Amino acid sequence: MDPVVIPILVAALVVVFLMAATVRIVPQARRYNIERFGRYRRTLQPGLNFVLPVADRVNTKLDVREQVYSSDPKPVITEDNLVVNIDTVLYYQITDPRAAAYEVADYLQAIDQLTVTTLRNVIGSMDLEGTLTSREEINARLRAVLDDATGKWGIRVNRVEIKAIDPPNTIKEAMEKQMRAERDKRAAILHAEGERQAKILTAEGTKQKDILEAQGTQQAMILRADGESKAVELVFQAVHRNNADAKVLAYKYLETLPHLAQSDNNTFWVIPGELTEAIRTVTTAFGDQSAAAAGPPVAGQQDSAADVADSDKDNVGVPEIEPNSTLALDAVAAADEAAKQAAAAVSDAKAEAEAAGETRLPGR
Length: 364
Hints:
Elements: H1 5-22, E1 23-26, E2 30-36, E3 39-44, E4 47-50, E5 56-63, E6 67-70, E7 74-77, E8 83-94, H2 97-102, H3 107-123, H4 128-133, H5 135-150, E9 155-166, H6 169-242, H7 246-256, H8 275-294, H9 299-314, H10 326-355
Antiparallel strand pairs: 1-4, 2-3, 2-5, 6-8, 7-8, 8-9
Helix pairs in contact: 3-5, 7-8, 8-10
């Protein structure tokens, strides 16, 4: 090989090496800290950068994107002396690469230890119930402390979240029993409320049923009374239209007497004072019919009847009826029949009264 070629090749290799050592290409979202003879010189930005070969060197390569750091569960004692394990998640971003590289030796470890101490201070003033229900408050206080401490490290803490709070197993069992008891309580309350609503609805339905039945009974009684009143009115009009005399009315009066004692609500029965007048009217009616059937009296009979009439005028009281007279027999028979009917009505009324527990009759 030609001796001149060898130095040329060596020189070319040196030039290539120097060019390679001079050029630094920084990717996007990365930052390179450059030191010159061991001293911080500058931070390379993304893109093509030139440095002095041999004199400058890259000390740290940092990622300035937002990153996530999940710490291991740490034991923390609450105010009521219960040990709980708390796992946190940290979202942070490097804002100053120089400070992150030179202000703190290991920023992740520093953030982790600061998080643990802050958690112990915050949760130490809370009981277990407050710890489980106050995550937002704990997160806010953690972020405030970490922002204040990590600002000089060139790191911004965007969010701090508590990922898990694990109480002891005995506390978990007690909490499960409490939750089960609360569920049973709510189920019992809902069941009782359902039964209450069902009873209320049933009572309302029964009430509406009774009201409707009472209204139906009322309407039926009104219609029945209206029909009876119209029937009585028609009978009354028919009686007056046919010009019924006192004899027919007296007979219907006696015929109606037995029906007065048929009511279930009667405990005693009052015999009307017009009963004797009705009997006398009926007796007179039957006597008139017997007299008409016997024919006109002869002269001797007329004289004897006149003598009787004269004696009746002088004699105050009930006229005496001759035993052999056909008129007297018919009248007595009619009076006896009416008296039997009245006595039967009175007996029926007395039986009704005794069945109801009342043995007293009017006039006794």
